[in-house]
Amino acid sequence: RPSAGAGAWLCCLLPLALGVRLLHAQGELCQDERRMQGFLFVTALGMALKTLCFYVYAFVRTGILVKCLVSLLPGAVTSLCLVYFVQDSAVFGLLVGFLVTVAYQHLYISAMRGFERSFTYGEASILVQGLVLFAISALNRFWLLYREGACPAGDFEQLSLIMVNALFWLLNFCVALFLFPVLRQPLLFYVSFAILLLAVTLLPVTQPLPVVALLQFLLSDQRRLGILAFYVILAGLTALTVTWQLGSSAKANTRVRKVFHLLIVLVYVPGLLHQCELLYLATGVALAVFVVLELVRLLEVPPLGARLAEAFAAFKDEKDAGQLALTPFCLLIGCSLPVWLTPCPCSGQGDAALSLLAGILAVGVGDTAASVVGSKLGRNKWSGSSRSVEGTLAFVASILLFLWLLHLGGWLALSQAKWFAAVFGALNAALVEAFTDQVDNLVLPLVFYIIVGLA
Q1: pLDDT tens-digit map of 172-224
Q2: What is the spatial distance between Cα 399 and Cα 441, in angstroms, rounded to a whole number?
Q3: What are the CA-CA distances from residue 6 to residues 10, 46, 417 (Å)?
Q4: Of 169, 163, 177, which is closest to residue 199 (Cα–Cα)?
Q5: Residue 25 has pLDDT above 70, yes or no
Q6: What is the pTM of this model?
Q7: DSSP track, 158-220
Q8: CA-based angle 204:207:213, to the nearest 5?
Q9: DSSP secondary structure string, 78-96?
Q10: How far apart are CA 265 and CA 152, in angstroms?
Q11: Contact 4, 437 (CB under 8 A)
């Protein structure tokens, strides 16, 4: 991406987040879950090492022998970690260690070449790591479903499996569009999409069928229906904001774009505090909708393709330099990552609440306050940065004020250790926001999540 550094350090954020989560949740996980979380952590670590080695291979002048050793190092380290820490067999560890790192490098390079100017090296690493980890996790869920021969019984387990199934089939849909260009024709696109919807709603991964299970879940609670209606209203406000901006000849400025940050705060906070299962489901639905709309825009599928292209042109900022709408994707992913990374986010354990709110606090509250205050009152700039000291202070103060209001209202109980972690996390995230040229929406939630997860 032009006007941005490589951001190689970003490749370590996802492994660190998974490591913190694994360390924090050791007593909460059964043996199979602990083993899978360990497997995902080691895999993420191997992919991060592969990114750093690729960076050395591509940009550092070395001999051919050193390049060969650097290329083999990530697979070897991953294999050893799988054998000694996850307790896999030597053959399985060796096979999976090299297979995953090689596949990751292929996907990583393909993403950088296929979406030119869209990512920095670090941003692409986070997104491709997430894609690989999701595919591994989904395949594991399907294997457990086949092995046990019984559908999950609890609400969250059912919703989680439905969401994983839907996103997995959507991933296959994207791969099919890439491999078979004929499917990009409008008629075949919509036929394929209809087949996708049938697979998502009628494939018997739950008992009853997913479409019935979803209706039963949504209609079984009055408060849930109220929050769902609230979400529909917010979606309408979002559509009105986009329509209003498209009716204006001017391009959306930063303050207009921050409206979406405030709307996403209104989505996540009530959901996390009162209807966690519904919010979890909504994050998956929103991601699926984003992906489908982006496919329609990129492939120029009528009748919405041209209109979506206009919306993208009106709202894109300097970080949307390529053809991919990176900023809105990263806003959704950044706010949702803490929920997705946590093995049992809706278990009702109060200690996890601060970690689950990490994305909203960093992006929805802190970054929004820093942008508004910095643009209005910012007078003193940080050395080597376009961000202001006033904006950084507003970042920290807004997060702490928001947490204090939640604590005062009885919605969030924080121990002294958690308050210390919140202050330390807000300070570090604020400094990262002030000096990084990477996408804030993706980086800040992970930084904040890692720090508060250590408390």
Answers
A1: 999 999 999 999 999 999 999 999 999 898 888 888 889 998 999 999 888 89
A2: 15
A3: 9, 19, 35
A4: 169
A5: no
A6: 0.92
A7: HHHHHHHHHHHHHHHHHHHHHH-GGGGSHHHHHHHHHHHHHHHHHS-SSSS-HHHHHHHHHHS
A8: 95
A9: HHHHHHHTS---HHHHHHH
A10: 31
A11: yes
